[in-house]
Amino acid sequence: MMRIALAALAALMIGPGLAAAQQGPLHIEITDGVIEPMPYALPTFVAETGDAGQMASDITRVIAADLSGTGLFREIPESAHIQRFSAFETPVSYPDWQAINAQALIVGGVSMQGGKVVVKFRLFDIYSGQQLGDGQQLAASPASWRRLAHKVADVIYSRITGEGGYFDSRVVFVSETGPKDKRQKRLALADYDGANLNYLTDSSAIVLAPRFSPAGDKVLYTTFETGFPRIKLLNVGNVAGTLLPEVPGTMTFAPRFSPDGASIVYSMEQGGNTDLYKMSVSGGAPVRLTNSPAIETAPSYSPDGSRIVFESDRSGTQQLYIMSASGGEPTRISFGDGRYGTPVWSPRGDLIAFTKQAGGRFHIGVMRTDGSEERLLTASFLDEGPTWSPNGRVIMFTRESPGAGGGAGLYTVDISGRNLKKVDGIGGASDPAWSPLLP
């Protein structure tokens, strides 16, 4: 159930080449900050076999949810469409789409062939009157139909924005159930949009801070199953877990993979002192990276693996520091009012997301890697634990509501601070970690 196989994910070219089409005007420049979403039309994909009707409708709706959910696109309701498609090959009547102010048109077909779902689609630039990129055809098992929809949405997003997508990805997190004073916690996995919820552990032991491997096939997390915090490595495919070696008399927590997946950086408490260490995934003695009487934790590698950002109270209050991945004297990068924690390096390498507590409020924010250009994206009773989308454009985090009946949920916001929304369908949840794009 945990393994998702996407069969025959090869592109079949159906139309003019991408290079020429990309010279047209249909483009969103995300870095400039988009205020007015681009209007697009997405007629329900044509069912090309008699048994594909419901699948065609479902796939179309997921593509629309992906695109509109970014805040960059606005779907024009199908009731406003003038042209209707009864066949995938029907020529596009550009004046009909210009009349309703559509800038992009997505046309597709769905069929059932040999026990697989086959999806083909084309993207059109309405005002330049040309197809944008090649048409593509994808196939997968019926159980993977949502992945097919996410793949189509990723291609469309990339062609219009010029950047990588993030829809065909997953999130591992801590699922929370029960009253606040007796909260049950277990590891869970879901699509980025909350669909396909699965549980990776039971609630017999507290679990914290799961983190994906660079390939997305393994998860590191902190477990209290021995009564003390220890680091466990879990294989997502067969849900088999292994406790990592520990030094007797220590507690280990807050693990994170290196970008090459070969080593782990983490915190180890020994004799009342907490420092950062790293060790090989295959075992071996831990290597000490910091040596301070302060509490050093929440390490996160830069994308090239050369540096580590972490939180420390060595200055007297919780702040962010960067040091070489091999250790050495760190450089403090946060200097604003309040306390900073849970830093996470952007997959683009240009920003660090963090949690900030100041003025009785919690915030999710971003800053440059030298600490400049700090921007706070959210504010609430309790926001914490940011994680980046695979393309570095969206941040997911935990938001907890106050009071005895309060609970935690997962939210997303883009790096401009716009498009704040809750991830539905997963119930109480905290500590999200976003996977890379699925293969």
Outline of this structure?
With 439 residues, this protein is mostly beta strands. 10% of the residues lie in helices and 41% in strands. A hairpin with a 2-residue loop joins strand 17 and strand 18 (283-288).
Structural class: mainly beta
Please tell me how large the radius of gyration is.
Answer: 23 Å
Into which percent range does the helicity of residues fall? under 10%
What integer is the average pLDDT? Answer: 92
* Tally of helical runs: 4
Q: How much of the residues is beta strand, in percent?
A: 35-45%
Low-pLDDT segments, ≥5 res: 1-23
Oligomer: single chain
Count of DSSP strands: 31
Largest sheet: 7 strands, mixed
Shape: elongated
- End-to-end C-alpha gap: 17 Å
Describe this structure in words.
The chain has 439 residues and is mainly beta. The chain has 4 helices and 31 strands. Strands 1, 2, 3, 4, 5, 6 and 7 form a 7-stranded mixed sheet that branches. The protein has a 4-stranded antiparallel sheet with strand order 10-9-8-31, with no helix packed on it. Strands 11-12-13-14 form a 4-stranded antiparallel sheet, with no helix packed on it. β17 and β18 form a beta hairpin. The longest helix has 17 residues, at 53-69. It starts with 17 loop residues before the first helix and ends in a 5-residue tail after the last strand. The model is unreliable at 1-23 (pLDDT under 50).
